[in-house]
Amino acid sequence: MKKISILSLHLGYGGLERSVVTLANLLVENYQVEIACVYKLYEKPAFSLNSKVEVKYLTDVKPNREEFVENFRKRKFICCLREGIHSLKILRIRKKSVVDYIRKSDCDIMIATRDIFDYWLGKYAQQDVMKIGWEHNHYHNDLNYAKKIVKSNYHLDYLVLVSKELQKFYSEKLKNSHCECRYIPNVISAIPKECSSFQDKRLISIGRLSKEKGYLDLLQMFTRILQSYPDWKLDIIGDGEERKVLEKYINENCLDKNVLLHGFQKREYIDKVLHHSSIYVMSSYTESFGIVLLEAMSHGLPCVAFSSAEGACEIIENEKTGYLIENRNFSQYIEKVEYLIKHKDVAKKMGDNGREQVKDYTGEKVILKWLDIIEKR
User: Fold this and answer.
1) What spatial distance separates the first Cα and last Cα of the chain, rounded to whole Å?
2) pLDDT tens for residues 51-72?
3) Which of 60, 184, 271, 354 could crosslink 297 through cysteines, CB 3.0-4.6 Å?
4) Closest Cα partner for 239 from 259, 264, 261, 214?
5) Torsion angle in degrees (nearest 10) through CA of 57, 59, 61, 62
6) What integer pLDDT is reported at residue 68 of this predicted model?
7) If we measure between CA atoms, which residue out of 163, 119, 171 comes closest to residue 7?
8) Antiparallel, parallel or unpaired: β 259-263 and 233-237
9) Phi, psi of 200, rounded to the nearest 5 degrees
């Protein structure tokens, strides 16, 4: 039986980590699968992992970025210096542990999930190991970042991209290398048997509470929507460093009866809230893939997003499964959301179209694309 190893920074909460667990769960039905993690952040992985998947933690240290940022915020510069020195030590431990693992691993296929892992995989892996890079981020017009990805993957066998646009972009950049670029989308966990009834006057958005997700923009737009539809609610599921900023806006604008910040929640909880929602709203400035859109579509929800979120452009079919708003135009965004609120029949039709589209992203279909690579070993 072939052995596959997936290199991961950690198995905590995050879209990348969720994708790693999902892939491991799919592969372990036919292969021996091991996830090699640099950091152990929790006693067990944040997402449900098949017991047949072996998890190997490479270090006993944890990143100290939050401590450094907190000390810097409080202007404790001596503590910052101390944390900076400690950070350098952690990075040295990280490199040594990952490189040693790559050199000594008995796997047949190794999948790296970050650009630095890609680079070390290409440089230190044994010659007979199939080497695969797996890039989830969009370069967002940052050509220096794109160059780093090209350099890191130049000596790998494959680079897997989560969007067709990225596959086309990197194929051109790597055309003179040995590395072949493949498009393999992320996987939706399941398609519910029943979809939303559209009886609940609720908007929903899911994601990390960080600046690039644009949740403050969403709250500002929702404030205006409430002027015409005061009985509607907004559910935001997720957690992150922007939570206090959002809470402050909610309190200052008396939105506490209409906006609920759920924090991080597990899959069952999210599905329940989605099932009792009527429209999915995304406010991201950037988005590499946007699997939350597929999850919303699986519940029969139309989706509204800004076109600046590149992943949304690949998933939402404008005016068929939702709306894509150009140039972060708040007025147009509000207009489309209010149109769906007013025209439930249109919202339902878009939701039906989305339910049909998500069938292409099930594990049964996506795993075939991975097998097409793996079985060439």
Assistant:
1) 12
2) 999 999 999 998 877 776 776 6
3) 354
4) 264
5) -40
6) 66
7) 119
8) parallel
9) -95, 135
